[in-house]
Amino acid sequence: MDFLVEFEIKVPEGIPESEVTAREDAESAAAAKLVDQGRLVRLWKRRVAPGESRPIGLYRAESEADMDGLLRALPLYEWMRVTVTPLESHPNDPGVQQPVPRHRQEAGVSSHVPEPRLTKVYRLEATLAAPLELGETAQGHRRIVPLTGGTFSGPEMSGRLLPDASADWQIILPDGTALGDVRYTLQTDGGDLLYVRSRSIRHGSPEVLARLTRGEDVDPGEYTFRSSTEIETAAPDLDWLNKGIFISVAGRQAACVIYETYLVG
Q1: Is the model's pLDDT at 8 over the cut of 70?
Q2: Which residues neighbour 213 within 8 Å (Cβ) at sequence distance 6 or greater?
Q3: Containing H/E element for 214?
Q4: Which residue, 123, 167, 126, is CA-closest to 18?
Q5: Quick check: pTM over 0.85?
Q6: Residue 63 DSSP class
Q7: The CATH number of the domain where 62 resides is what?
């Protein structure tokens, strides 16, 4: 059976921020597992007020009781108010898979390509030193921004950024767009080292970019800051990082930069 589920999440007063973050990370990991199991099909956001939205999910379960058990197992369940609507199939459903032609069936060929999904790996908050302005070079206006420290955490690992092996080598285009070559080294709480390299782009309106240049705190929703990311490690338990494709969504604040890195599955 399919179920449409709308969530309203309210964190009780007095809950430490660390517990909220841990539960949110656990919720992301639980959602990824449900996707792998074929029980979480899609997720959307429904806007309910300016700046406020609620998640809506399409789930599959054997029965209403099975669906109830699935929801109760979510890490954020006790902070949730949920509305569950059972769904029935429609004879004119355009999403019904069309029969595969006989010649393709005989050849064992399928045209179905899986949709990508994102799983959060970590959130890094890195402190910054004053940028080094090299000026105009053959490549463009060159700037180097040292990353001086910080911490990262995720569902499967956490640790710190090593300051002496981390920086962002930027090219600034005439319209203010920043092209980043970000290289930093992370050390997990278990002592394993991760070498991370990101190719980033940050762009927005001239007014917003001017505010960023002045060191103001600007809402990351007012500009675009994205990167493709590679991670290398020699740690056997983290070898899956070497085989992953990652993207990062970033935000620049007055004294730090935030990278939220996701595995593309």
Answers
A1: yes
A2: 176
A3: none
A4: 123
A5: no
A6: S
A7: 3.30.70.1060
